[in-house]
Design brief:
Blueprint: E1 10-14, H1 16-27, E2 34-38, E3 66-71, H2 79-92, E4 109-112, E5 129-135, E6 141-148, H3 157-167, E7 170-171, E8 180-181
Parallel strand pairs: 1-2, 2-3, 3-6
Antiparallel strand pairs: 4-5, 5-6, 7-8
Length: about 180
């Protein structure tokens, strides 16, 4: 009726909405071309309990492009949960996982306000962004994790722009397991 392109549906949410974004994305991955949870607590209960994703999602074979945010002063999120969350996504998306020896994941590339989030690109507060990018072997960015400088449990409008710039490049043909880059 509304001529919605069902192969290009994206889901995003903030805080508990981020937890529900992960839950909906892992229960019904065929419905979404990409996810973008923001400042999402993991161990809060919810529909799936105390894990970031539903049981069986890690073994499902569904690729899931993923762009997440957190604030550097956010009391709701923690590094261990984020590593587990991101590690699952990187495995599904065919990215190599490299640990830094201190419990963190080594990104393939880092974007900051100096090179990517510039004022000419429309980011008035781009100096607050630091995005770790994770790529497949073919160089496709499949996941990003942005840590916002001087940010408690909150968000700014420019995060929406960055999430959209990432998600708009993906579609899920026939609502199948693989993602297509457009």
């Amino acid at each position: 009726e509304y001529e919605l392109d069902r192969e290009r549906v994206y889901l995003s949410g903030f805080s508990n909405g981020a937890a529900f974004t992960r839950e909906a994305g892992s229960f019904m991955p065929e419905m979404f071309a990409a996810l973008s949870p923001w400042n999402g607590p993991v161990r809060v209960g919810g529909i799936i309990g105390m894990e970031a994703f539903s049981e069986g999602f890690a073994e499902s074979g569904y690729e899931m492009p993923y762009w997440m945010y957190l604030g550097d002063n956010d009391p709701v999120t923690n590094a261990l949960d984020l590593k587990l969350e991101l590690g699952t996504i990187l495995s599904l998306d065919g990215c190599e996982i490299h640990e830094d020896g201190q419990g963190g994941l080594v990104p393939d590339e880092i974007w900051t306000g100096e090179g990517h989030y510039t004022e000419t690109a429309g980011y008035a507060e781009g100096d607050r962004f630091r995005t770790s990018l994770y790529k497949r072997k073919d160089g496709t960015v499949m996941a990003g994790m942005t840590v916002m400088k001087d940010m408690p449990h909150g968000a700014i409008m420019e995060q929406s722009r960055a999430a959209w710039e990432f998600m708009k490049h993906f579609r899920r043909p026939g609502n199948g397991k693989k993602i297509e880059i457009i």
